[in-house]
């Protein structure tokens, strides 16, 4: 533990509660909750588009779902990676550039996620703002952006929780 | 100890009954049975945790960094997903005017009571196993 704190990067030590198992568990639950909210914001927009409350000519169709699909795919890719492989090249036994492969796959995941967020903004602007949708119809575009941002937030929470786990098991091993 | 256990079971079953009463009222009062989906969601919610907890081997303490830990976290992720789904589903239905606001409130409260009962039972039996 003592030589761990010598290798830290920042001036302030990491708060102790960040390493507890309970925080990690709560983080994973919270990530699931955020992903659920994201999905249901989109489903709400789609249902609202079909309901009788939507008097406008704007409707959600396949284009509106593509950014969310890319975001979810990116989240899946990012969180499938075993985080300890990212620094695997510093170990002698792992040849064949495992860390390099992990970084490429991780880059693809981040690209898919950023593309999803950018795509949702594109849909909002091109499909709703430019064609001057009024508020109830504008919600379809806003919901798209909100859902993709929530997927990204959920992914961040899951990533932080998983890194927490590594520290936790390391402390246990010591 | 046995008395306390018996009392807990009775109280929990009362809460479960009240939860089901609220959800069924929210459906039957307005002749619209969509809020019953909440019950299905909350009954399904602890199942990923159970399955993934059983799936990860008992010696996952050694390799919880890569092996069993990931599976357990997958189960927790889906449980968190389903719990929030139980609240989000009535809100979506009410926002799109498929059910009424009163039905939404009743089904959310009833669903939370049902889920709280399930979780309390899990905690209760878990403590029983330890002793």
TrEMBL record, chain A:
The chain crosses the membrane at residues 21-43, 63-81, 102-126, 138-160. It holds the Pfam family UPF0220. InterPro entries: UPF0220 (IPR007919). It is found in: Membrane. GO terms for biological process: late endosome to vacuole transport via multivesicular body sorting pathway. GO terms for cellular component: fungal-type vacuole membrane; Vps55/Vps68 complex. It is a multi-pass membrane protein. Keywords: Membrane, Transmembrane, Transmembrane helix. This is Uncharacterized protein.
From TrEMBL, chain B:
It comes from Baudoinia panamericana (strain UAMH 10762). Keywords: Membrane, Transmembrane, Transmembrane helix. Belongs to the OB-RGRP/VPS55 family. This is Vacuolar protein sorting 55. One of its GO terms (biological process) is late endosome to vacuole transport via multivesicular body sorting pathway. Signal peptide: none annotated. It is found in: Membrane. It comes from the Eukaryota. One of its GO terms (cellular component) is late endosome. Its main location: membrane. The chain crosses the membrane at residues 6-26, 33-51, 71-93, 105-125. PANTHER family: LEPTIN RECEPTOR-RELATED, RH04491P. InterPro entries: Vps55/LEPROT. Pfam families: Vps55. It is a multi-pass membrane protein.
